[in-house]
Amino acid sequence: MTGVLVCVKRVPDSTDEVVLAEDGQSVDGRKSGFTMSAHEECAVELAVRTAADGGEATVVTLGDSDAVEQLRSALAVGCTAATHVQAEAHRFGPADVARELAAVVRDHEAAGQAHDLILLGNDAADSGDFQVGIRLAYELGRPVVNGASTLSVEESADGPAVVARGQGPDGLETYRVPLPAVVTVREGGVEPGYPSVPGRIRAKKVPIEERQPVAEPTGPGRVRLTLPPPLPSAVRILGEGRAAAPAVVDVLEELGVLSR
Prior knowledge:
Shape: globular
Strand order of the largest sheet: 7-11-6-1-4-5-12
Strand content: 15-25%
Number of helices: 6
Structural class: alpha/beta
Number of domains: 1
Number of strands: 12
Order of helices and strands: EEEHEHEHEHEEEEEHEH
Largest sheet: 7 strands, parallel
């Protein structure tokens, strides 16, 4: 049985146009709506699958009251418990978040609820931070694997271990680390679960643990976010009807699709 803690964050939906807040410190989601990142959706799915052997999948978030929506979404697809650290997320930098998550883990362990495996998204969808997973592992003194697409928990003579796989610079990489451990998840390895009507009804009935931060945040230390310039676009008119066929062939040759 594996106890899994999966960490999620309420972020603006980036499938629409990305707009920055006036202070340049965050992405404005008032028009696009809010969700959890695709990385975290996959992390939730892996948490639920891993805990299916009789363990427990707990979801945790740090954010304001609206972040309960993301907790309920994770509960609707199979997580069985939830913790909400009530805070203004924009005031918390990666080191602050890692400290608060570590405090949750320690308090749960003191109460008899062990989190053998901690899963996070590979990076923050709104601010691009790649730090929380590594900082959390350092806080807890645990091994960490970054950018895994799939994982499994296996027993061995040395005890339980997580086997995490992901794409590296030279192809598929496989890491085996002993539990307890921390793994950050990259989208693409599994298909996220989507809540059913019974799942949503069940999720509404699950009590959510509410707690306050253990320390004042130091902040993200971010100067500002910037948007990259829009990609240039151009239209090339090849002609009309059959007269355009030679030009189409020329374009295909330029792209390397055809050769003479």
